[in-house]
């Protein structure tokens, strides 16, 4: 894949899927801005990229604070120039509880980080992308944004909202050479899904083993998604091969979602 973009800003770019996305884009010659709350993790990811021969810088980012988002984008642009690729990856799982037991604070926090944060980051860079006639916006949504997910109302709502943001961004920016797409992973193997399983087991009559079997069985492949597959899909959507792919919600779910 040929990725001719020069710079990328990856939110939550130092851990989990975000770290793999940062490493993957750097492997394609992109200068990556690793944006995250965790200073030690940011530095570790930058060091790993540089050890592999890539180029990266890091910046503090708190998606609950609009001023932090503006400062992070400004810092990134001062360091690397105009942002060519924005990956809105950072997010939280939110509560696993029935709707009536979900607090307003839990709802607001989940929507603030998962959806409002992506909106603010996109708003901060889209003007320059349109002005230069090139850009890639990639939102990490979820299969939960396309289906009913009991006990996960804030998370599912935030991920469905990301799909609306993706399509609107694509429509507004398309005439200017900018594409916007979402990736909808199924359950990705890692700590987050394990925590969700633990919480569901605590709040339901199902055992942990039953929940794992159920979740794996939802995919046609009968397995969780490999996080490296998400990173590879991000790189694909940033490549020259996808200039006419925009406004899409691409499933990487092992067949859990097929629409």
From TrEMBL:
InterPro entries: NAD(P)-bd_dom_sf, Sc_DH/Rdtase_CS, SDR, SDR_fam. Keywords: Plasmid. GO terms for biological process: monocarboxylic acid metabolic process. CDD domains: SDR_c. Pfam families: adh_short_C2. Belongs to the short-chain dehydrogenases/reductases (SDR) family. This is SDR family oxidoreductase. It comes from Natronorubrum aibiense.
